[in-house]
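#struct-help
A.M.: can someone run this one for me? Single chain, 233 residues.
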Amino acid sequence: MLDASARAFGLLFSGDAALWGIVWISLKTSMVALFLAAPLAILLGYAIAIFRFRGRRLAIWLVQATLSLPTVLIGLLLYLLLSRHGPWGGLHWLFSQPGVILGQFVIAMPVLVAFTLAAVQAADPRYAETAIAHGASRWRTMCTVLHEVRFGVMAAVISGFGRVISEVGCALMVGGNIAGETRTITTAIALETSKGDFAQGIALGMVLIAIALLMNGALMFLQGDAHAAGARA
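D.P.: on it. Structure tokens below:
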């Protein structure tokens, strides 16, 4: 184990192309999926929180329920949809980066919607009431409310990123763990561990831990800013 750990540090600090290529694919697919999911998810979370409509409680329940869906199940569903005989087979996204991005998009959506929904519901209703009283349009009112809960929304984005970059089931089933194309940090760790090559797995695990620490540090920083802003108010 000590020898594997020493070789892991060597891979990290020698700029190993294969290892950092895997990290780049993980960061790229996760960031693109989040960039695509965030605007739609924030709008949905805001709409569910603000508007009263038939089936609203069902929508909230579904959002909360999808948070606990195993990612391997999402991967299975997407595999069936994207397979050659599936309804989306013509896209040819199975075992490709677009397929991985689609899977991460689906995984990120409920996290972003649920966190945005909770943030907007917890907001002081006077923000929206004041904006409406000053003649703001619905769009302007939404922008005002989302600005006031921006720390909660940013926490949603950070949590969503952490969720997608650390999942393995969907990326493995939809991406296929193809070297240089769809091999992510988590799928590479699973592969190298099964082969008994622990050095690269340990190195990638260190990268994943570093990313998790950075994400949680950013979240704590945002929460500290939110408390400071609340104290000033």
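A.M.: thanks! Residues 2-226 form a domain with the MetI-like fold fold (CATH 1.10.3720.10).
D.P.: also worth noting: The chain has a mean pLDDT of 89.
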